[in-house]
Design brief:
By secondary structure, the protein is mainly beta. It has helices spanning 15-37, 175-179; strands at residues 51-54, 72-77, 82-85, 87-89, 107-109, 119-124, 128-129, 132-133, 147-152, 157-169, 185-197, 202-216. The two termini are 20 Å apart.
Length: 237
């Protein structure tokens, strides 16, 4: 999945990185369309020269593959009193990435690993609407060390710790850093940030909360031993 790190995630094949790369370029269209139709500020495409919001280092845990593949169904971030169910995001029929269809429920990008596996799991959510804050409005206020908990379908709960909160302009979004495997278990939370451009209808930057795996509870139901793979046609830009 990444040139610098050969991991088990590479078993998904080279097509996945083409999908991820395309996702970062075409998601803007889908987000803007959804946002304008709902009169809301859209989740902008990931993209900027990194501007740290919170970068206090915390010890990272060298994750091992102890968490079985299981679809995430809930997200809790105690530091900002966030507790919400999760939707699942994939690709639209035209090859563009799906985005959450409302501002109250984030979505997990299912073409990546599930939270707790080796690799970078990604959850995306809207920051606000014209009527008020969205579900990820307070993401930028998180601090290094804050916990993020993800409930999985099999009953396990994977816990992560925030390592940093970064802001990127969309033209310089670090796609590989956010989506590709670094050889450890990570979870990235992505939303919009920075200045809002009223002419284009979306924010000029993205906020990314980086987290690393800490621990997981045991599953309460049997889980599959293999990760289901999806065939995806490379996105053409």
């Amino acid at each position: 999945m990444t040139d610098a790190s050969r991991s088990a995630d590479e078993s998904r094949g080279p097509g996945l990185w083409w999908v991820v790369s395309g996702v970062l370029l075409v998601v803007a269209v889908g987000c803007t369309t959804w946002g304008l139709s709902q009169h809301q500020h859209p989740l902008a495409p990931p993209v900027a020269a990194p501007a740290p919001v919170s970068t206090t280092p915390v010890p990272t845990v060298a994750a091992v593959a102890v968490v079985a593949y299981s679809v995430p169904v809930s997200l809790k971030v105690p530091a900002i009193s966030l507790s919400v169910s999760l939707s699942t995001l994939g690709l639209n029929p035209d090859g563009t990435v799906q985005v959450p269809d409302n501002d109250t429920e984030p979505g997990w990008f299912r073409l990546g690993p599930s939270p707790g596996q080796i690799g970078s799991a990604v959850i995306l959510g809207h920051v606000d609407t014209t009527k008020g804050p969205g579900i990820f409005f307070q993401l930028r206020s998180l601090q290094a060390g804050d916990q993020v908990q993800v409930g999985l379908t099999d009953g396990a709960v994977a816990t992560f710790a925030v390592t940093s909160v970064m802001q990127y302009t969309k033209t310089q979004f670090p796609a590989r850093q956010v989506y590709a495997s670094q050889g450890t278990s990570e979870l990235q939370l992505v939303t919009c940030g920075g200045a809002f451009d009223s002419q284009t209808g979306h924010y000029l930057s993205n906020i990314v909360v980086y987290t690393s795996f800490v621990s997981a509870t045991s599953p309460t139901t049997p889980t599959p031993t293999t990760v289901p793979l999806e065939r995806a046609t490379p996105v053409r830009i």
